[in-house]
Amino acid sequence: MKDRIEILASGFGGQGVVRLGQIVGTAAVNQGFRVTMLKSHGTEQRGGYVRTQVVLSKEEIDSPLVEDPDFFCSFSSAAYKQFGHMMKDGVVLYDPAMVEIDESKPFRQIAVPAKDMAIEKLGRPIYANIIMLGALSAAACEILDKENMLATMLSIIPKFKDENRNAFEIGYGMVTS
Amino acid sequence: MLAGCNAFAGYPITPATEIAEAMSVNLPRIGGYYMQAEDECAAMHLAIGASLGGMKAMTATSGPGFILYADPYGWAIGCEIPLVVLNSQRVGPVSGITGAPGQGEFYNVRYPTQGGNYETIVLAPNSAQEAMLMTVEAFYLSERFRTPVTILADQLITDGFEDISVPETDEEKKAMGMRFMERKAHPGPEFYPPTDEIDIPPVVLGVGTKALCSDWTPTEEGYDIETVEAQHKHSYRMIYKIRNHKDIISRHETLFLDDEPDIIVVAYGSASRTVKTAVKKAREKGQKIGMIRPISVWPFPDELFQYKAKYLSVELDYDGQMVREVQRAAPGDSEIHFFGKCGELPTVAELHETFDKLLSGEQLSRIGWEREAW
């Protein structure tokens, strides 16, 4: 494993970007990693630009900044355009309902139709970020333990446990290594 | 709460609201008090009132709230009231950007109120772990120096998320370097002695010692007097109790200063995190670069800047604030440079580009909005 894993998620306020970062960060702490998570956002609770940057390491982390993402969860075209250029050999997970990708890029890009699946399978788009979390968990399965991620998510989101568990599994199943 | 804080008064503001939220949940569980004020000015006054009542009090805000603390902050300095104030810097001026870090209040925390004739104590942590340690230290210093102590944080520290180790036993607290000081009450009647001594207990109301405190120039007993001589005595105390015991306050982190580095990068708070990574990686490339990170930023640690080198102050502001102190403190013939960015941390890549330029003797300044010459 690399000595430093960088995870970036970005989209609009209300999509659960910060929550996703918080769950990943907490799961990593539970797994014994040193963790930093930064969030950047505007004043509005919904609609504004949001970014979360998570860094995991077995050692103390100096720079908490994501400059070479191993995983980038893109929830909007704006986010993809703004941060896609940072990608070198990481993986992009994007929601095709919201993000138009540049297919000429050399790095791996995985479509995670989180919003559509959330509406189709669970009846509400609100579960899209947990579907994305499941997909991220699968993409990062060599680093982050699936059961720990699921348990951490359920401990952080106290409501709608069955729906969130289903959302996580749907997302997990979308990514094959 | 580790330091014995049992009163918190606040008014919500990004990115300090989480502190008030946590205190509102946790303080009542240990018999403490949380007070939600109608505005920041009231919050600071309430915190002062709690401290005057013998409690260990704290408040937390961000820049737009911190300027509203100005009047009560002066009361706390003048009446020598122990208190911990956290200012989490976001991007300014005024409301600026809420969810992004800045370092625009470097001088604001040195001069948090009008009138002059005082020194302030300011601690600037660069991580969640250090924020915990420095908050405990702030309570300790506020009791010993009988003055408000400001913790100068920023959005990435109070709004971010990191793993921390919380000590559980006295041994663990000691091993982490935590220091503690119980609240005592001044027996009176000379509440305001004209001396630079520390460890003089503060005025506490309601403990049978009588008590006086006023915003006017006081006599040694605390009566209003407004004479030049009394004011001189009082100012001497407010300035020299801190200046003459700076060694108790001073703390810093340095890296790679032993081999006459060509560049010494200076940074505090969250900006120092990427600086540290950039400096370590530059060393791996063979570049002779060192780092000075003041943790106690006021009084400014002049004594750290004795080296002859090119100094580069990296700050989360565009106007260049700490760089002025570096220029003042460094040897007279030093080259002083500034790298400013606000709302985001400088990246390691940007810092390496800057180091390369400085090492090859290039000028850093660009004309235009991106980076005007400082």
Tally of separate helices of chain B: 13
> What is the domain tally of chain B?
2
- List the quaternary state of the chains: heterodimer
Q: Which residue ranges of chain A are poorly predicted, with pLDDT under 50 across at least 5 consecutive positions?
A: none
Task: Provide a count of the helices of chain A.
Answer: 6
- If you average the pLDDT of chain B, what whole number results? 95
Largest interface: A-B, 21 and 25 residues
Question: Compute the gyration radius of chain A: what is it?
Answer: 15 Å
Strand order of the largest sheet of chain A: 2-3-1-4-5-6
Structural class of chain A: alpha/beta
Q: What separation lies between the terminal Cα atoms of chain A?
A: 16 Å
| Level-2 CATH architecture of chain A | 3-Layer(aba) Sandwich
How can the largest sheet of chain A be summarized?
A: 6 strands, mixed
Provide the β-strand percentage band of chain B. 15-25%
Describe the structure.
The complex is a heterodimer of chains A (177) and B (374). Chain A has six helices and six strands. Chain A is α/β, with parallel strands linked by helices and 177 residues long. Chain A has a single domain, classed as Pyruvate-ferredoxin Oxidoreductase, domain 3 (3-Layer(aba) Sandwich), CATH 3.40.920.10. In chain A, a hairpin with a 7-residue loop joins strand 2 (34-41) and strand 3 (49-57). The longest helix of chain A is centred in the N-terminal third of the chain and has 14 residues, at 17-30. Chain A is globular. The relative contact order of chain A is 0.17. Chain B folds into two domains: 1-249, Rossmann fold, CATH 3.40.50.970; 251-359, Rossmann fold. In chain B, the strands form two sheets. In chain B, strands 1, 2, 3, 4, 5, 6, 7 and 12 form an eight-stranded mixed sheet that branches. A five-stranded mixed sheet of chain B has the order 9-11-10-13-14, with helices on both faces. Chain B is globular, with a radius of gyration of 21 Å. Classes of the chains: A alpha/beta (177), B alpha/beta (374). Chain A binds chain B through residues 21-22, 25, 29, 33-43, 61-65, 67, and chain B through 14, 95, 97-100, 156, 159-163, 270, 273-274, 276-278, 280, 343-345, 347-349.
